[in-house]
Design a protein that fits this description.
The protein is α+β, with helices and mostly antiparallel strands. Helices cover 48% and strands 24% of the residues. The protein has three domains: 62 residues, no CATH class; 104 residues, 2-Layer Sandwich (Tetrahydropterin Synthase, Chain A), CATH 3.30.479.30; 38 residues, no CATH class. It has seven helices and ten strands. A hairpin with a 4-residue loop joins β2 and β3. α3 packs across α5. It starts with 12 loop residues before the first helix and ends with a strand.
Amino acid sequence: MSTNGQLQLPKTIMPLILLGIVLIIFISKSTINIDAGEAGVLWKRFDGGVVVDQPALGEGFHVVAPWNNVVVYEVRQQELFEKMKVLSSNGLDIILETSAWFVPDYNNLGKLHQEKGENYLERVIKPALRSAARSVVGRYTPEQLYASKRDVIQSEIFDETKKILDNQYVQLNELLVRDVTLPATIKDAIERKLKQEQESLEYEFRLVTASKEAQKQIIEAKGKADANRILSASLTDKILQDKGIEATLELAKSPNSKVVIVGSSKDGLPLILGNN
């Protein structure tokens, strides 16, 4: 104890305290925890910088030398929403809204970090998407983009963007065209044209339907006329007389009182006289 009443630590404890502090700092600098959906790129200060010939550090706890560094990347699928102004084939402004789903190439994460950096989204993906969109949309008129070509341009933009990104250590999974906005005047003109075309198609359909119905009635009438002609040609006087006799004989079997005079009618058919 000191002469002034204050407690003094033994001289041997101070170096231990300092050593403990150094160890704590060393351990904190030498460990890293990588969360789910992430991976780490190791940078070695005294051994070649970015490690590109080894797999990235996976999820979990890792110990690294305190003079080295680990850069953490998200390796889940991510979405880039991009709204851009592009030109149609006739030079009109088109507003295109797209969503790109992408992931960094896990097996080449070191090369991505070394060549593109953490800001690879701005440096690589956005320019590739914008270039592909301008190239594809420039092939079509506003009418095509509005009416029938959205799925086509979506597929073409995906193919061209993917082609650009193939050697950039980024994998493009999907590209969606969320909206195509035309100038208001062009949109109104296209809608009027589409409405007129629809009305024209409906009118043509009604004409075709009416024509088919008329043809059906003509065919049915012709069939009936042919049937009547054939029937008339087959009904000779002899046949009619025989049929009349058969009918008279059947009628004679009725219990009602009657007199049948054979061959007394105008046409030589039996004549029936009865009390009714």
